[in-house]
Please model this.
Amino acid sequence: MITQRAELTFKGNLRQGRHSWLRLTPAYSVQVVQQLLDGLDNPGRVLDPFSGTGTTGLVCAERGLTCDLLELNPFLAWLARVKTRNYAEAELAACWELAQAAVTHVQEHVDSEKVWVPPIHHIERWWTPERLATLAGLFHGLQSLHRKQQDPALDVALIAFCRVAIEWSNAAFNHQSMSFKDNTPTLFSANEQDLIVDGFRTNVRQIIASARQELSGQVNVYQGDSRRVADLAAGPYDCVITSPPYPNRMSYIRELRPYMYWLGYLNEAREAGDLDWEAIGGTWGVATSRLAQWTPDGVTVSHDGFDDLVHQIAASSPLLANYVHKYFVDMATHLNSLSRVLTPGAKVFYVVGNSKFYDTLVPVEQIYESLMAQCGFKDIKSDLLRKRNSKKELYEFVVSGEWAADKSR
Ligand SMILES: C[S@@+](CC[C@H](N)C(=O)[O-])C[C@H]1O[C@@H](n2cnc3c(N)ncnc32)[C@H](O)[C@@H]1O
Model:
């Protein structure tokens, strides 16, 4: 029987040192990457063109491999950089000092000071005024007391800050995308400031402990659009291990918003929509209205039955039909660009999930197989990885292939 196998999702990463620094739903599991690497004699230089929280890069770094990561979202690119670098003992000591100073700053100044809070729409839905004041005081302390630009001590402390900010928010992560918890004040509201700063210190301690782990591989993180991967990352790559967005209308921005506003990667709502429009499979805000105007612009998807599938979805929703069509056109554009930075015989592995719109099942893994063939890959196959959730027919697959170098390209 094919089961849900939680160990193959982000849940499997929660107890694993650096892999557990920030809990984000889109992350795939360490085990998937380990198993794929175990199956290769010599992975060579690895690329993850949709690197998210940097799981592929961190597993490669732990094994002494060289790995490049490409990610559209600037916050995730920052997170991956911070997770995959080595830290000197002096930097970690500076991080602890900074965290302590920020705590003192909150305890001494938070009531009197008017500190910056992130421009999140309806911020009161995220944090009560008391919690927000403590978090804003901590954040202000970290920003004003750190010693230099590009400070690794600050980066590590900011991961702990992100953790504590979400732990004390009303966001509940018990659904695939988060929702809000009940905002009723608790009996402990009075000493919440102490609990928040204690939680922050505990998080800093834990993160510093795992940051001591020495990484023997080299990771480079690029921020940009994987549809233009050949313009951004030189390669050449012997192996690609990645999990692109699935065509399931999940918006990564939605879950990442609180971190992105605090850390200054988003300043107004419109920017979230703009970024999601750039993201493959994005549908947040303005992305939806732009989708209505979208046309494939000459890029074809050579898969038997693809046009029928798009027409079937269009009968219920022309917008969703455009969504699915655009998703595969974007992936075709990505695979074409990717093929220019692969070595002959390079192995590629795409972890993807299928999806369903109304009564139409989209056989995502089969369409990937066709796209890989269209872009010049050979030995293409899909292996079933796991069942996705309780909904019937939704599964994850590893679609793999080998780059068949064609000198005329
Ligand atoms: C399923 S997640 C990858 C998760 C990753 N395997 C991890 O363990 O965290 C897909 C990622 O692709 C990124 N993405 C979407 N469109 C992109 C594009 N055009 N170029 C680069 N990255 C993109 C999203 O921001 C998201 O982080």
